[in-house]
Design a protein that fits this description.
alpha+beta, single chain, elongated, 15 helices, 26% strand, Immunoglobulin-like, 4 domains, 668 residues, 6-stranded antiparallel β-sheet
Length: 668
């Protein structure tokens, strides 16, 4: 099938009179298309006394058509489009191309129009029943294929964009927003359909009929299908976020929304009518219509399940993953890690569907406010849904919570994705206890390892790395560089900075290429030319040395750059024996930057030495802000017995490290 619903549009919540591009609701591939595409609209006139009676219209090619009644409360309109293989367009002789078809929404608040799409190769069926979706939904899939439905709800008070999908939580929230509103006592389907649409999904057209098998549409799937012959205890299957269609023992039909609980203890929101012993309606809207009631607060499902004819029950469920928490509250020590995969499980409503991704974020209090996530060796921060971290299902086992350095409480939110839809955010709590200092680092080696690790990345990217990154650089990558430098009579601090400048030239541990963008040969005014290199040297001198820059500083950096270019042209780059000219230039600029940082540190020129030392003292005291600039770090408090100072200017008392080295850091 080459015509499908657009999965990016779950429903449309419209303003009064808003025009909707009908073709945008579909994805159409111009090949092997069915001959006929039927656009069939249904508006069930089950509104309150306040309704203005207005319904929407379809228009195209200068012609407009409105709804007509086909019996009872059902008003419909339909148009048949024929596929033109030469143009790849569906067209109608009167209304033109489907691509230009517009639906103008009703001006009646709470109006619900279900736009259903069918394809067929049977012209008689298409033209005879285009305006009767009830007939089209009954045909065999071999004759008529139901693509699905999109609900258009007129709701001027809906202030936010229509969600692109629904979840059980959003169904519950939408349902609760209708409690207290006046509604028609016969308008159960309009209410359920409006709830679904405002949550971000559209009910299938079969949900408006009794005694026929349910079919999926968009995000809605069929969890129980009594009319299709399915048997079993359907009540026990009921969970929050589902919608249930059934025939009552009084031979009338009903649809209701499950907002909480499960089974017979589930709670429902619908247009239930309460009548007292005198036959008076207790929840009447008192708006002049005997048919209008006030939607009541959630009520027990047992009040309605007892009336349901089992063979008529159809349960619609959202196709989104479900997170089940195994450990609602766990405890960790400060500085420890917690394997998150062990705290929950995830499942799909459709058994054959796999979870493909997970997202996490956390909101901590106290010391837990600085908690983060370790994904493999990378420290990642996500403190809101907007900046949640995303991991593939295959990497779930590598995700840990990294506790902060002092006690607090962390609430972790997790949700899963099945390739089409995200599930709800589900909460877990981790209580963090105790306090921990940052890991100690030998003072004798801090100048050659930890200080360069902080200063080089901090100056090249405007932000230092995470605690794990700095630690990995200082304890695993740089010791070999320092040993080589000492063995060959080089200044170990400058050599360490050169090595870091080279590896950070092409990117940092977060995948950023900020240095290359700002200072590489593609940067404006810094091409791979003598003039471009000179411009780079001037920019590097200003950034690294600040007010300590002299007239000779840019020239010295330019000489280092020239030497490195000659060296890399001759021997190639680590892991790249045939680099391009621009790759050589970028590598040389990174190494020359490292030279300049090393020279600044070794001679205490410019701000870097004091800023790096201050950051490491902050880390020792638990006040450092990782993945932030050196200049934004808080001024470290004096250690016990040390003199008070407004700015740290020496690294002599720094005893801690604090960054996750990318695994492709290469020893040179």
């Amino acid at each position: 099938m080459t015509v499908t619903l657009n999965t990016d549009i779950g429903s449309v919540v419209a303003q009064a009179g808003q025009q909707i591009d009908v073709a945008a609701l579909l994805d159409i591939t111009a090949r092997n298309n069915p001959t006929y595409l039927v656009v069939s609209l249904l508006d069930r006139d089950e509104y309150t006394a306040s309704s203005n009676g207005n319904m929407g219209t379809l228009s195209g090619d200068g012609h407009t058509i409105g709804f007509s009644n086909i019996g009872g409360d059902s008003d419909t309109v339909g148009i048949v489009f024929t596929y033109n293989a030469s143009t790849g367009q569906y067209t109608n002789a009167t209304y033109g191309n489907l691509a230009n078809l517009l639906y103008t929404a009703s001006t009646n608040t709470n109006d619900n129009t279900s736009i259903s799409f069918f394809t067929t190769n049977n012209s008689n069926l298409a033209y005879e029943y285009a305006n009767n979706p009830y007939v089209l939904e009954l045909d065999s899939p071999a004759v008529t294929h139901y693509l699905g439905s999109i609900s258009v709800v007129t709701q001027p008070a809906f202030a936010r964009p229509t969600p692109t999908q629904a979840t059980p939580d959003s169904i519950e929230a939408a349902a609760m927003s209708f409690v207290g509103e006046a509604w028609n006592m016969d308008g159960c389907w309009v209410l359920a359909s409006n709830i679904s649409a405002e949550a971000g999904a559209s009910l299938p057209i079969t949900s408006t009929s009794l005694g026929i098998p349910g079919v999926p549409s968009g995000e809605w799937i069929v969890a129980f299908n009594g009319p299709a012959g399915q048997a079993g205890n359907w009540e026990s299957m009921i969970t929050a976020g589902e919608m249930v269609v059934f025939e009552t023992s009084a031979t009338s039909g009903h649809i209701t929304t499950v907002v909480s609980g499960s089974g017979s203890s589930a709670m429902l929101v619908d247009n239930i009518t309460y009548v007292n012993q005198n036959g008076q309606i207790v929840n009447s809207a008192n708006d002049g219509s005997a048919n209008d009631i006030i939607i009541s607060a959630p009520h027990l499902a047992s009040q309605e399940w007892a009336m349901a004819v089992p063979g008529s029950v159809v349960v619609y469920e959202l196709d989104c993953p479900i997170i089940t928490v195994k450990t609602a509250v766990s405890t960790d020590a400060a500085g420890a890690t917690e394997v998150l995969a062990a705290l929950f499980s995830a499942s799909n409503p459709l058994a054959g569907q796999a979870i493909t991704q997970y997202q996490f974020y956390d909101v901590g209090t106290g010391g837990a406010a600085s908690d983060s996530f370790m994904v493999g060796s990378t420290d990642e921060i996500g403190h809101s849904a907007a900046n949640a971290i995303t991991v593939s299902a295959s990497a779930l086992s590598t995700v840990d919570l990294l506790a902060g350095t002092s006690s607090g409480t962390d609430t972790i939110e997790v949700r899963a994705f099945n390739g089409s839809y995200w599930g709800d955010w589900i909460s877990m709590t981790v209580d963090i206890s105790g306090n921990v200092s940052a890991p100690p680092f030998p003072v004798a080696n801090a100048n050659d390892t930890t200080i360069p690790a902080v200063a080089v990345e901090g100056s090249m990217y405007g932000a230092i790395g995470s605690s794990a990154e700095i630690t990995l650089l200082a304890t695993q990558f740089l010791p070999a560089q320092v040993a080589y430098a000492i063995q060959n009579g080089f200044n170990p601090q400058i050599y360490a900075c050169e090595a870091l400048g080279l590896v950070f030239a092409f990117g940092n541990e977060n995948g950023s290429t900020g240095f290359a963008t700002a200072f590489g040969p593609s940067a404006v005014g810094m091409p791979n030319t003598s003039a471009g290199d000179a411009a780079f040297a001037a920019a590097a001198a200003n950034t690294i040395f600040g007010s300590a820059e002299t007239t000779n500083t840019p020239g010295a950096i330019d000489v280092w750059l020239t030497n490195w270019k000659a060296f890399y042209t001759q021997v190639g780059l680590p892991g790249n024996s045939n680099p391009t000219a621009d790759q050589i230039d970028l590598a040389a600029r990174g190494a020359a930057w490292g030279d300049a940082v090393g020279f600044a540190l070794a001679n205490d020129l410019g701000p870097l030495s004091g800023q790096a030392a201050n950051f490491l003292e902050d880390a020792a005291q638990g006040t450092a802000v990782y993945s932030a600039s050196l200049s934004s770090q808080p001024t470290a408090a004096p250690f016990q017995g040390a003199a008070s100072a407004s700015v740290v200017t020496t690294a002599s008392d720094v005893q801690v490290t604090g960054v996750a080295a990318p695994i492709d850091h290469i020893v040179v």
